[in-house]
Amino acid sequence: MINQMDTLKTRLPLSDNHCHTEFGYCAQDVTIKAAIERSNLSGLRAVSFTEHSGQLYVSKEDYWAFKFFSNPGLLRIMRDKKLDRIKAYKDKLSIVRSASVRIGFEVEADCNAGITLLPEDKEGIDLLVGAVHFLPSEFINAGSRKLENKFMWANEVLLKNGVDILAHPFRFFIRSKLSTPVKLYKPLAKMLKEYNAAPELNFHTNAPDPVFFENCLEQGLKISLGSDSHNLSEVGDFSKHLKFLEDLGINQSDILKHLFYI
C-alpha cells in the first residue's frame, strides 16, 4: 500500500474530498491526526474531513433510527440542550485547518426538504458533501416509480441546499439490495450540472457504474475523488479510482482537468 501511494506521490496531486474521523459512529480506526499523516505520506494535495453531520447532533440510537429525517427539529433540541458535538468537531479541526486540510460535513436530506445542518453551523467550513443514505420504507415498499421519484427528490433537496459534492450516487440502491435505476443516470447528471455540483467517485461499499460517470463527463462535470475513509488504510488510496477513470478513456496526463478541487 505504501509503495503504491509513493508511486502516486510522484505523479498526481490528488485531493481526498471525503474522509471520516474519530467523531463518527461508524468510524473504525481513522482519526484526524493519523489521516493527516497518511495524507502527507501519500502526497495528497488536500484531505477534506466530512463527518456525518447527523451523527454530530443526535445520539447513536437516534441516528441509526434515522430520526433526523422524520424529526428535523431534533437537531435544534440537541443544540439547545448542549448535547451535540458540532463545536467539538469544528474546534479540533480548526487547529489543523490549512490549504491542505479542509473542514466539511456529509449532510442528508430531511422530510421538510432541509438538510442535517443548522444554518449557523455552515460558518467556517470549506465544503458540503451530500448523501442519500436513507429513504422511508413506505417508499421502498411502494414500488419502483415512487421510490425513484423520492430518490430524485432527496438528491435535489441536497443540491438546493448548496452541497458541493454528491456522495456515492446510486449507492443507496446497492446497499438496499435493489436494482439500480439506470434510467435516472442522465437526469441526475443533468441535475448536477444545473446546480454546479460534482458527482463523487467512491468505492466504499460501492460499485460505481461507468455509464453514469460517462453521462457526467458528457455534461462537462468535474468528478470528485472520495475515499469515504472509515478505516485509516483507505485514506488517499485511489488505485481503484484511477483505474476506473483510465477505463473510461481518460489518460493519466488528462486526469487532473476532469477532477473537482476546492
What does this structure look like?
The protein has 262 residues and is of the alpha/beta class. The protein has a single domain, classed as TIM Barrel, CATH 3.20.20. It has 13 helices and 7 strands. It has a 7-stranded parallel beta sheet. β1 (15-19), α2 and β2 form a beta-alpha-beta unit. α11 packs across α12. The two termini are 26 Å apart. The relative contact order is 0.16. Mean pLDDT is 94; it is low at 1-8.
User: Strand arrangement, largest sheet?
Assistant: 1-2-3-4-5-6-7
Distance between the termini: 26 Å
Class from helix and strand fractions: alpha/beta
Query: What name goes with the CATH superfamily?
Result: Metal-dependent hydrolases
Architecture, CATH level 2?
A: Alpha-Beta Barrel
Strand content: 5-15%
Q: What's the CATH C level?
A: Alpha Beta
Please give the largest β-sheet.
7 strands, parallel
Rounded radius of gyration (Å): 18 Å
Number of helices: 13
Shape: globular
Total domain modules: 1
Mean pLDDT: 94
In N-to-C order, the SSE pattern is HEHEHHHHHEEHHEHHEHEH
What key phrases describe this protein's structure?
globular, TIM Barrel, disordered N terminus, 262 residues, seven-stranded parallel sheet, alpha/beta, 13 helices
